[in-house]
Amino acid sequence: MRDLKRTKARKPRANRAKREKQPIRWKKFFHRLLTFLVLSTSGVLILAGGILGSQLLLASDMFHVDQVRVEGNERLPAREVVAQSNIQTGQSTFDLELEKIGAELQKNPWIREAAVQRIFPRLVVINIREREPVAIVNLGYLYYVDKFGEVFKVLSSADSLDLPVVTGVGRELYLRDRKKAQQQLKKVVSLIAHLNQRKGFRLDHVSELNIDRQNNIRLYTTVGAVPIRLGQDRFAAKLDRMERVYGELQPRLRALESIDLRVDGRVIVKISKKEPRRV
User: What residues contact 148, with CB distance under 8 A and at least 6 apart?
Assistant: First the structure.
């Protein structure tokens, strides 16, 4: 039997604190629920009102095209540019596909670049960059060449012929090797730009620029059609020599057969043995 006297008396356990259940605060709960419903409903109403308002605004005349302005045009009449853009007065500005309109405008051979911009609420601005012809190239038909060496328009009866003619870039080469033809034209156009900046021997003294398969360039004078052989490079130094003697040679051009500038430091003039040519 257990010795009850030797058994240690157990200490009574402390009573656990009783947790009191908190009553549900219904008033606060319904207040929060009501606030949520009010805010949600307000947000939906604001969104719906915004959508409805924007639809009414877009349907109104406020954003309908009232004016189309063309900028950057010198050669092309503004009305022609507007007609090609197909932008209609009264059309909604939001219906305009600006990039597509610009691409359509660039189909005009005289327009190199075109950008279309909305100016709210009712203005559309078309800004164009026109091509500038600097020469005429014979590719079976006569075409204009711009200052970038790009062939861009076949000449019509209404176009001016008062530009130097580029020969030697044949139609076959242009169709077969467009890149090579482009390089040749760029070289000739660069020389044209250089001649435009000169005073003694100018571009208006030149009627034709010829480039051969080896990229040698030959000029022909307006008076007498005398060939001036330039070779492939160092055009500035060669034209400097030409300018120093051109005043003396100019009255005698019809009696000359050729002028050669390819030898450094020299101007080699060949006199024609034939009767002076009359051009």
Answer: 186, 189
